[in-house]
Amino acid sequence: MKARLIKIARWAAYPLFYLFCLGLFGYLTFPYDRLKDRLIAEFDRTQQKRGPSQAQRLEIDELDSYWFTGVEMKGVRLILPPGELGSGSRPSGAAAFASGDAAKDSAPKPSVIEIDEAHARLKILPLLIGRMRVSFWASVFGGEIEGVVPMGRSGGDVHVEVANVELAKVGPLGEILGLPIAGTLSANLDLSAPEGKFNKANGALEVSAKEVSVGDGKTKIQGLIALPEAKLGELLLSAEAKDGVLKVTKMSANGQDLELDGDGKVNMREPWNNSTADLYVRFKFTDAYRSKSDLTKSLLGAPGSSVPGLIEMQQPKMKRSKRADGFYGWHVHGPLKKPRFDPHAAESPAARGRTPGASPATTTRKPGGINMPLGASEAAPRDGEEHEPPMMPPPPPPPSTEDESPTRPPSPPPVDGEGTPPVE
């Protein structure tokens, strides 16, 4: 019996050795250059449906193997057309005042997202229970992004970590805001996606950005004035996902120059970039920053002065977004791949604590301390919400009749002899 097993093992060793050599040399001699060209060609083919002016482009300098089930890439560049994610086009909403007429004179330019190095591989152990999970890592924007995501309909948890990403290197972000932004971002996302669908996901998101600032003293507003650096300090954001709705439970920053607050939700969709945002963001420049120099006083308005700042005078949207508490309110809504920014001077439903369908406040404080009606906001109404119509001034009193003439003073006689004085 033993001799028979040895004989079978001896004959089985030859095909096993052959398969081992085939796999080894196939792995070592695999034409990754041709695979790189195929990936770029397939990406371009899928983008052709969007049209020449809207198509994205992918460039890869080097592609190689990573362990036995993965690939490694270096020098990856995703080139976004003008208007994608707000890049290269004239900004709207909160960014409008930062570009002004300069956007009319400059041609739209594409944005480039650069990834220095990245690798991804299919995990082997989950395959034994019928699940496809991909782990990835990337060096991008001066920091690192890593995580594990499920593939197909196998389901499973999503885990993504972001560490030390430099906001100044995130080009599309600065172009969406319309102003340079700096700081260091870290984030942690944990989601449980049943059947691999994000519209049913549950989990949590934590974001922390330190030493955040906007403006650099060089980028000009309206093409004429450069906004001095405004320090936002530490920005914190927390959100909880339940049944595909990511609700923001905390969004705040209290810097020495700029304060920010916000709330809202994101309805997750398939694919993820089709998710729709419904966020309300409010920010305010502190009195210390507005009094920093003659430039900030003229640009933002001096504290206690009835003269509005140049921002409100030059940009009607900034004026309409001004609230009674001095904050500028904005409604960020629409798909994540191309969000919209609309002025919203009223409190958000979450901040008001009201029930859906209640009428929002539509008044704000104009420079000088006078409450003036704003009329309907440009922001899209939320579920069951209707904006109040603008308040109208009272109609003028009707003209007096002849019966009231005895109570009116007599008309003065003509001057310089023109005509004949009336006969009493």
TrEMBL record:
InterPro entries for this protein: T2SS_GspN_Lepto
Q: Where is this region: Disordered?
A: 329-424
Q: Which residues cross the membrane?
A: 12-30
Keywords linked to the UniProt accession: Membrane, Transmembrane, Transmembrane helix
What is the name listed in the Swiss-Prot or TrEMBL entry for this protein?
Type II secretion system protein GspN
Q: Where is the composition biased (Pro residues)?
A: 390-400
Top-rank taxon of the source lineage equals Bacteria
Q: Where is the composition biased (Basic and acidic residues)?
A: 380-389
